[in-house]
Amino acid sequence: VQGTGGSSAISKCSAAARGYFQDRFLRLLAGRRRRRAPLIHRGYYIRARAVDHCVQDFLLKTQRLSRRQILSLGAGFDSLYFRLKDMGLLHHTVVYEVDFPNVACQKAALIKGMKELAALVGDTGGEGKGAVAFSGEDYKLLGVDLSDLSELERTLEEAGLNNEIPTLFIAEVVLTYMENTRSDALIQWAAEHFPRACFLVYEQVHPEDPFGRVMQQHFRQLNTALHSLAQYADCEAQQRRFLGKGWTECSIMDMNEFFTCCIPADEQQRMQTLEPFDEYEEWHLKCSHYFVLAASKGMEPSWTPLLPSMTVPRHAGPVGMAGSVPAAVCARLSGIPGLRRYGHHSVLIKPNVVLTTGGFGEERGQHCRMRNFHVLSKHAGYWEAVSVTQNIPDKRWGERLYHTVSCLSDTLALVVGGRTSPSSTGLGMLWLKFPKTCNASGPDDVAVELVSLQPAAEAAALRWRHSTTEMTFKGEQYLFVYGGRSAVEPVLGDWYFLHTPELSYTAIAVDGPVPESRHSHSACSWEGGVLIAGGLGAAELPLGSVFLLRELEHGFQWQTIETHPPLVPRYSHTAHVHEGKLLLVGGVWFHASSVPGVTVIDLMTGLCLDYVINVEHLEWPLMLHNHSSVFLPDEKELLVIGGGGNCFSFGTHLNPEPVSLSLSSILISH
Is 0.90 topped by the overall pTM? Predict the structure, then answer.
């Protein structure tokens, strides 16, 4: 547990160095310096913003009082005192920090050894006595085990803590490492002994969904199990916990809610453009698995909570489920290498034959961008893997992620866009050619050729997280490339009609309400037109709109498809159309109480039903984002391939094998 403080200080330090927030004291306290990934920077940014928001609000609301105090529990190598003092915010305020005795001693030695830190504490800063490792006029550093309440109380009294003045308790990823009986006792002790107080908590939530299971496993491996989660699994349970232990007010929000409601739009945008970034799914999942809570009691009648109450309807309200869909692993695909990947694309190249290309995954025990193509074919009811030789001149395939593949005939498919790194430009287009004689089990070799495009069509290919859909206009075949993002534009709303097979750019009139720009949406062919659903919009917010691009005499028209109840906004899902119904599979949404399963939208009536995926026969967490899926209409079977991603600092989770979803019970033909 003590080790978590050091690694969190290094991550905060790395985020500050990249400009996520200002803190010149972290580098003095963190010791080692390591550059972390952008996803980690964002995670520590939102944590710092949430804690700062509440601390500064407390200081603002109590500024007219003659005295107040802050008690930081499990403070580790945090720089809070030095930042607040430097900003001139600690008038009439004493900050007490408590941590394990050896952590407190290390920090005390650091402060004494650094002029910049020692100067802020002031000349009176000096040797503490007993459990008091450092004692300055307005800063006390105590070495006590938090689970020993009587010792904590005695040491705080000795250090001068005054129970009668307004007190802010801070527990930033601390309580969860304690046994619940001990953390409950601490919460109750604070309420009983301090008539005027606030309690700020930042920690994990939602242990049982796929991301939560990976998160728990990570902390168990570190030997720092998250105890709170067994008893307090969601935000409502945490709120009830505080209200039941003597606190009279308690507001709570997960970090998606906090980011949306409490961070101004211009600051959101500033943060989003600090580094090339393309891990939206993992960012939103991380945010839905952490909360900030502010409880209070005995404050002035005019007191407003440190966190706004959720005036907008809570994201966390449960999504009503109409039923469930069984998931099963495919008997003969267990342990087949090459299918543990995400950001790839799978396409039916002929009945019962699936080609998977690209993405990031695992090969020979190493994580890397995937070069190898993979073919699955179904024989006598079983999926089997087929090995493929690839004629790939080295640079052409480019090891791409987030591309599309469209099958134009049984010998030809087109790859559009994709990227290597998020700062690279898109990767253009490629032909994939299969031998005409290929047998029923699929091609045994695939030739890759560069497509040379007219200048007018080139921009269509320099994107990723877009969609490419087959459609018809006046009896002619076209590909419709829509949306996505590029190295320059975080979200695109443009489209291209490419006449096949020569891919000439064709201008066709489109009227009607233009859908807002999006990427990571789904697109399906339907009745000659295109159905676009969901996606991630300009402010990195999931969208719940469904549009139909419909053929008219002179061109096309965008039409909105109204769904009821309204479609829960989502992105990074896959989609298929079957007999007038749009099927949406998986994805990421902000409703933290459940994960998206299969949603069925009746395109005639707009009725929208959500089904949970029953995973009781799977032995591992099924992550349904950045996956691919193919639908076999005769069997009403949906084959899900790959999926997963980097789960914040908890490691990479890749679904180990393809999963078959049986939709026969929810797609009853009328």
Answer: yes
